[in-house]
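User: Can you predict the 3D structure of Beta-ketoacyl-[acyl-carrier-protein] synthase III? Sequence below.
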Amino acid sequence: MTGSDRAAVVAGLGSWVPPTVVTNDDLARHLDTSDEWISSRTGIRRRHVIDPGGSTGDLAVEAGRRALKSAGEERADIVVVATSTPDRPCPATAPEVADRLGLGGVGAFDIAAVCTGFVYALGTAAGFVQAGFARSVLVIGADTFSTILNPADRTTRAIFGDGAGAVYLRAGAATEPGALKGLHLGSDGGQSDLIQVAAGGSRQRSTGLPAAAEATYFTMEGRPVFAEAVRHMASSVTTTADAAGWAVEDIDKVVLHQANARILAAVAERIDVPLERFPANIERVGNTVAASIPLALADASADGELLPGQRVVLGGFGGGLTWGSVALVWPDITAA
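Assistant: Sure. Here are the predicted structure tokens for Beta-ketoacyl-[acyl-carrier-protein] synthase III:
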């Protein structure tokens, strides 16, 4: 197989969410909010959160294990974990995840691109495979945003949930189902303050001053983020479809980062693709950040929405700002 014929092929899919469920009514018992207020603005009715002492790595291990099982594999050459809530600031979470999966000794590293992290990780992993540096890569998106939310902020607490999703990539032919194609990535660091945790990094710590309590929590400017998310995800999807040689109207499924039901509807309208082609699980899991896309894939596959042979575009938008998308013909796999 020549370099131009070689591609990273999706061969396994796994997902995991922690068992503890927090409904909108649960939030309303402690915050000035209601199920109607949350669901009408976001489309979210429930989310899963980790129990005390749990971590992003715990979720990543379970999703990774399931992706390996789905692929019928026990090994991977590289493990990539996309996360913005690592178990510790140092070291990366991926090496420990690899060790717990029995893959000790393989290359393992994290990628931080917030809600676009899974797409960035797919692109990075595909590069290793296509260049011949790896025969297989386990790509995991995992986040536990419940650990960085202000307990008194009704907006962010309503939006985010915890979870993990993973895919197993193997080397294969560029023409076979599951082969990744048409990757598109973008960023705008000039708007990095729109989505952030202000404290905890070198910029704040180098001052030698203690961080204000509110600076340690996640913040997001909702209105501009909404507009930027719609604009960039719509543009990225069309760019990727064109690179894959597809007309936008020929895309069977558009699996986007599950940030807000209104964003999905706005992107669908902007690219003139029926909303019915946009699988959504945000109602029951919320915004799970880097886990969002693989969780949506797993649910769509289990629900029979995602079928072998369909033309699929995956797309994300998140802090950085970052955005990106990738295309594939969905393979005949069963999520675990």
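The two ends are 30 Å apart (CA to CA). The first helix runs from residue 24 to 28.
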